[in-house]
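Practice problem: predict the structure.
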Amino acid sequence: MNFLERIFENLGRAAGQPVIAEARADGAVSVAGAELLALTAEARAFLRAAGCARGDRCAIVAPNSIRWVALDLALMAEGIVTVPLYARQAPAELAAMLRDAQPSLICAGDAALGDALASEWPSGPRRVLFDDIFTRPAAAASAATPPLAALTPADIVTIIYTSGTSGEAKGVQLNCRNIDHMLACTGARLDLLMGHSQRADRVFHYLPFCFAGSWILLLSCLSRRSVLTLSTDFARLADDIPKASPDYFLNVPTLLERMRTGIEDNLKKRGGIILRTYDAAKKEWFARADANGSAGSGTRGGAFRLALARLVIFPAIRKRLGANLRALICGSAPLASETQRFFEMLGIPVLQVYGLTETTAICTMDDPRRVEAGAVGPAIPGVEMKVGSDQEILVRGPNIFPGYWNRPEETAKVLREGWFHSGDQGEVNAAGNWRIVGRIKNLIILNSGHNVAPEPIEEDLRLSIPGAAQVVLVGNGRSYLAAIIAGPLERRAAEAEVERINGSLPHYKQIRALHLEPAAFTIESGLLTANGKLKRDAISAQFRAEIEAMYQKKAESAAV
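Answer:
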């Protein structure tokens, strides 16, 4: 039985039980297993009537919703390759990916999005709206629904486009074998987290399904006894999360850092004994963490304040994240160890995941029983990982994609001698836990010959400078590093933090010049990818004059 057959069987067992919900301003709206199957059957009938055939490609361009899930299931059930795209991405970028994928049908979430795509690609294939596909309320599943397409392990199920941090996005093909293996691994880890719970998992979700990790979580939930609550408005997260009362949910580091900042800002506003107790408790906790958990590493007063905070303050904070929260899951980018320890202090473990779209989203996952702050866990079962030249992480196993869509040369560059060359730099310790150092393509090579991985320095600065949204180091081929710092911040504060961090770095890693950009980078500005990563080439091009000015100014200063 493959993953799709298991999902449909599971939905049948949950015929009268909620499986997917949408968090809305006036309350959550949910569908039971039978209702989701009915919506899926309706979408399948539409696809067949539209002339879509097995092996065709069909694009979904829409925010997360119950109907998104039903359409995705319908496409897979018909043997049609689903191409999910990010609805917030610039229409020109979406059109470029659509031209590459050449779908037979484009399914848009609303008319405005459909019109924008039509404007960018007027000669493209037929465009339909979700309202065209789903015309009836969800009802009991029809007995006349045809059988599922018989998927073989090698059949391509989806094409997910990479974020394009340093160039044109590529379509990653994932097959049935990839997904079968990955869902077995995620299911086993979630079983460890949930233990012997007899009820359905409660899961909250806000990340777009067009990202591989987000989609794998969706399929994992559909394969298990779960109720998955979808965010429909990012601005309501603070209210929607405790209402959903999740056992766990998937995050990117940026949100966890915002949550931490928001919690600490609220405590500062309250002030008084609450703030003093929190500050002393935090100091004690981090002292113990630095001393590998030794209770004698802090002070007697600190130990008392930590005990008091655990009794009074931390439970109140946890309540705002939901009474049932067992863990936060984090992927997409390395999480600062300080942020991970902060949530551990509150009694909320953060389980990290590392992977790429090409590895079916996951290579490593934290074991809930053995979490190491700053690490991303051990390789998942059945997957081999090793360090190659330049500290590059190499991976092989049933999770490795068969190749890029219509890009044999690009495929050959990353799949060599049975190993996938990730482009990420990493290291592994004796316990088998991996740490991610940076991206090889992002390495800055100074004219002195020194190599600098920019990500750790950028992350330190971004977290320490008040108001900093993004930090980008530059200096390839130059004699020293310079930094572009974006966000509403003060130069004096930025310079002070740069000076502080410089004091802990070797001379060739020190930052000698700054450009402060008052507006934070955004997806809409074209400077961030769809999942919030830096588009370094685009940033370098847009700030070419400012970069030159930083180096020219230093050169003139040296000449004087």
